[in-house]
Amino acid sequence: YPWRHTPETQLSEFNLTEIEAMLRSYTKVLFVRDPFQRLISTFMQGMGSSPSFSSFVQDVLDSGQHNANVAWKPLVSLCRPCLVQYDYMVMFGFFRQELGHLLRRAGLPVDSRLPEFTDTQVRSTYSWLSEQMFSELSLQQKKQLSHFYHRDLAAFPFSSSFLSD
Hints:
- By secondary structure, the protein is mainly α.
- It has helices spanning 16-25, 35-44, 53-63, 75-79, 95-105, 119-136, 139-148, 150-155, and strands spanning 29-32, 88-91.
- The protein has one domain (11-155).
- The radius of gyration is 18 Å and the shape is globular.
């Protein structure tokens, strides 16, 4: 359906027959990241107007899932993994390894000219930062965040997430 496809076109704009045909014809790759790390990244990039991480988290919780910004909205509501059969799922922290694997599976040449991804290097930094920022939150905020992202935590292997506890 290339005549109807533009970069701004969303899947929901097509009828069910068209959606099914498109999904069968594409290789579907889902990039996922721990929801708590997404919150930290969003806060660090200054996307919230809150002076502290704790108040930023409270703003996120107060906005609710339906009014959530795409930067912190639960992934399950954005990518619909129960409806779309993704061919690959790539976790933050493994982009370089996974990209090489995806290129080989697609029959494309894999060479040393792959871009340098910083996700692998920042994994340990995010671990330390997550611990620090998680300690700023109240017990109630921690419970509310776990509930806010409970579907993401159930759908994806975020076993080391601070929100999994």
